[in-house]
Amino acid sequence: MIKREIPKFHSEAEEAEWWYEHRDETAEWMEEAAKGGKLTTLTELIERRKRETGLPYTKLLEALHKENRARGEQRRVS
After folding, report:
1. How many C-beta neighbours within 10 Å does residue 75 have?
2. pLDDT confidence of 23, banded at 50, 70, 90?
3. CB under 8 Å to 18, separation ≥6 — which residues?
4. In the chain, where the domains are located
5. DSSP code of 9?
6. For 36-54, what is each residue's pLDDT tens digit?
7. With contact defined as beta carbons under 8 Å apart, do 3 and 66 qualify?
8. Taken in order 69, 70, 75, 76, is the CA torsion positive or negative?
9. CA–CA dist 47, 55 (Å, integer)
10. Are 60 and 50 in contact, with CB atoms under 8 Å apart?
11. CB–CB of 75/14 below 8 Å?
12. CA 11 to CA 19: how far, in whole Å?
């Protein structure tokens, strides 16, 4: 499967606009991934991260939440 390029965004509005404008293209990406058995669920991602870090489930979720909030703060500052 080809790695798709998704640009870095300066705002949530810019990101929303990009996803809206590329909705047909991204739908095709999802269809390709589904046909190739390449879709991953959130549960699978969490399980993989648990194995990598050794963190218990609740601590892992707290860490992921903290990382996500930090990314959101960085977007607002940029």
Report:
1. 15
2. very high
3. 6, 7, 9
4. 11-39, 41-78
5. -
6. 888 788 788 888 888 998 9
7. no
8. positive
9. 10
10. yes
11. no
12. 13
